[in-house]
Amino acid sequence: MERDPGKGIPDAACPCGESCPLGKALSAVGGKWKLRIICTLSVDGTQRYNDLLKKTAGITNTMLAASLKELEADGIVIRKHYAEIPPRVEYSLTDHGRELWPILHRLAHWASGETYDGDAEPVREGMKS
Predict the structure, then answer these.
(1) Considering the entire predicted model, what is its pTM?
(2) Domains (ranges, CATH) in the chain?
(3) Main-chain phi, psi angles of 92, to 5 degrees
(4) What is the mean pLDDT of residues 108-125?
């Protein structure tokens, strides 16, 4: 396996190369905060900025704003601005963003050592009958 001298990574690490769709997906949802924002919007629905700030413990204003802008640019979150005084802005998942929830839910089960069989309840490994 040859290595890319600039990256130190085997060039055959992914058969897709630069156009890897999985890499694009991980870039869109990666990082410490994006998944938390997506989960909050999935579970709690449409949220105002300050509500997201409170529900995403530990995030700064700057990081929340940047993460929301990136999620919006990737078509995962929609920002709705209301022409009111005081101004009101709400964030929600797009249809594309809502498609992520079952995938992330299954990934969470996988990470906790559970198996997932369609609509059935997850089962911890070693507890199967």
Answers:
(1) 0.73
(2) 17-93 (1.10.10.10), 99-129 (no CATH)
(3) -150, 165
(4) 67
